[in-house]
Amino acid sequence: MIPEFADPDAPSLPLWLVRSGESGAEFPAGIDSRSANWARAQGFTAKPGQLCLLPAGDGSLAGALFGLGPAPKPADRPMRERFLLARAAENLPEGAWRLANAPEGFDAALGALGWLFARYRFDRYKTLEPPRAVLVCPEGTDGARLIAMAAGEYLARDLINTPAADMGPAELEQAARDLARRHGAAIEVHRGEALLAQNLPMIHAVGRAGAQEPRLIDIRFPGTGPRLTLVGKGVCFDTGGLDIKPPASMALMKKDMGGAANILGLAETLAQLGLTGGIALRLLIPAVENAISANAFRPGDILTSRKGLTVEVNNTDAEGRLVLADALALADEEAPELLISMATLTGAARVALGPDLPPFFCDDDAVAAAIQAAGHAHADPVWRLPFWEPYETMIEPAIADLDNAPSGGFAGAITAALFLRRFTGRARSYAHFDIYGWQPGAAPGRPKGGAGQGMRALLHALPEILT
């Protein structure tokens, strides 16, 4: 699907945004007494998401009212009204609609982005029509920027939603090649035994039992400037390996390449906005299946990483950090200004913060502050957790440098982040995002299924970070 706005020169109907107060709906100037009386008779009180169609004198449709609820405090506004306008996109009749007003504090750009998000449908296997209502891009907003953000989100959702039978390492590679071709980027892929020749042994170890060869996908965009390297976990399906997952835990493992999907989506947005020319952007995706076969890696194995650190495998279901470690070590050798990893890495992160609030880890206070502020301002929430150094001993086993799955289960998201940090050190700043990549239930602008997380927070924070 391609996100789009309605033709601004075509006829359109007005959509009035209405706040609620102590005595009910607070109708904006422009709503006459006849329309207000009609709305009250229909029980319209401007509750969040409430819709009321307005008739014209001849019985045709004259417009609609949409409830925003009470005015939130400024600090709460981006999250409280997060994509609320998407409800209008989902429920309005067919046709072009325009925002007739913008109440104080309402973010028209964010509302329009939510409308675009609501039009997404994953229709690869079933015919699904998008909402029939199309929005005219609000006056004063950057429509091209909103479409680029929606395009990145659509790409990430499509990749995550596609089942592993049609989105294995080879298909993920093809998606990366398509992205590179669209935007004139160079791509290099190392597969199978070539991973050993390129000194990427842990990617090979994790993926060698899969039906498709493991691979490292390396994309470089044609730009100059500060070096930004994005590393995304591309485990296209995770059985848990020999430490096999129970069925309930395996049900959503097609989404275990959500980190790769998110960095590809972010790159799509950056490229559409022409921002890749001013940075040296590189993407690294270790793409594997964590499967079971005669040559699967085993609990108790000691793996030697690209960086030379040895890793004791205490659980084959903690494979994501293994493939990321080799990719991070490769990325770090160039000492980029900013190195970011994104991965659907730990259940501990979901237990701590739930599916909607992904944690990130960063030692650079200025970088972390920019990311968290941008996420709040643009309704892409993230929350900083610490690289808590007293837990370093938990990832240090007796017979190897590192343990991929410390026993006890405490602080699982932190110990995973500490493990990854061991493979960095030259980059000026490093941030790791432990995302979920999935919307477990439908919400405004966010249908159940694959989801982008952290992409827009990074998009808006990058200008501050990379100056």
TrEMBL record:
The keyword Manganese is annotated on this UniProt entry: yes
Keyword check for Manganese: yes
Pfam families: Peptidase_M17, Peptidase_M17_N_1
Keyword line: Aminopeptidase, Hydrolase, Manganese, Protease
Cytosol aminopeptidase domain: residues covered: 315-322
Top-level division of the source organism's lineage: Bacteria
GO molecular function ontology, one term from the record: aminopeptidase activity
InterPro entries named among the record's database cross-references: Leucine_aapep/pepB, Macro_dom-like, Peptidase_M17_C, Peptidase_M17_N_1
Family to which this protein belongs: Belongs to the peptidase M17 family.
Entry protein name: Leucyl aminopeptidase family protein
Organism of provenance: Paracoccus simplex
